[in-house]
Write a sequence for this structure.
């Protein structure tokens, strides 16, 4: 293809390098049409379209997987401003942002060790809360369980909480009977930048609404109040006779 292109470039008219442009005036709109010269089509466009990397890029664009909502007020991210000063790691570069589509990844269900994936767990119309224990031991398991139980109490079936551990077995000190996903090779943790404990709230459309590292309960509740009116629900439950 390169040699053919060089040969065409050597021609004096080089008509292949031009695009003919036509402006169409319609009753309600205007359209701009490009007509590709045959040489350009045959020697450049078609060979490019036959390249695997071009096809992958076109497929990616057509699938709209690259769309994100990072600037939406419903996409929020929390990290301790002084984390770097006390030895805590910042978000890793590959970590998805709030407003990005949540990445998929393989894992295993506890206790059956049945193979599954995040997308399989996301099926349905519920939101999902991912609580990563972190690849490095952080001693944050009790905090994660506390948040998981709080979400279960406040939102019930509307949000499904998953604790994700980087091991083949459930840690002995993890006192949680809900969904536990095993990530023995740590690939999910790496994909989500969870070297230490991290939290991701996944909306029903598969996009990340909120993320936090380190994991704090109150900022998460503040975010959920904007989505689920938690204050109203808490008041109603407090007023209900026991």
């Amino acid at each position: 293809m390169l040699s053919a292109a060089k040969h065409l470039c050597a021609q004096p008219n080089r008509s292949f390098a031009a695009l003919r442009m036509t402006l169409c005036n319609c009753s309600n709109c205007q359209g701009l049409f490009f007509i590709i010269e045959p040489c350009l089509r045959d020697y450049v466009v078609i060979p490019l379209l036959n390249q695997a990397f071009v096809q992958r890029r076109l497929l990616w664009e057509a699938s709209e997987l690259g769309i994100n909502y990072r600037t939406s007020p419903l996409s929020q991210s929390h990290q301790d401003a002084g984390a770097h000063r006390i030895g805590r790691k910042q978000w890793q570069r590959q970590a998805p942002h709030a407003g990005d589509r949540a990445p998929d990844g393989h894992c295993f269900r506890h206790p059956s060790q049945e193979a599954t994936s995040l997308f399989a767990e996301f099926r349905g119309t519920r939101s999902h809360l991912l609580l990563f224990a972190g690849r490095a031991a952080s001693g944050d398991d009790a905090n994660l369980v506390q948040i998981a139980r709080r979400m279960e109490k406040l939102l019930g079936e509307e949000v499904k909480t998953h604790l994700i551990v980087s091991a083949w077995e459930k840690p002995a000190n993890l006192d949680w009977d809900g969904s536990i996903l095993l990530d023995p090779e740590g690939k999910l943790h790496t994909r989500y930048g969870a070297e230490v404990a991290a939290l991701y709230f996944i909306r029903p459309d598969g996009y990340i609404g909120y993320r936090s590292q380190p994991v704090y309960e109150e900022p998460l509740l503040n975010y959920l109040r904007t989505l689920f009116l938690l204050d109203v629900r808490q008041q109603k439950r407090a007023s209900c006779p026991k």
Q: What stands out?
A: The mean pLDDT is 78.
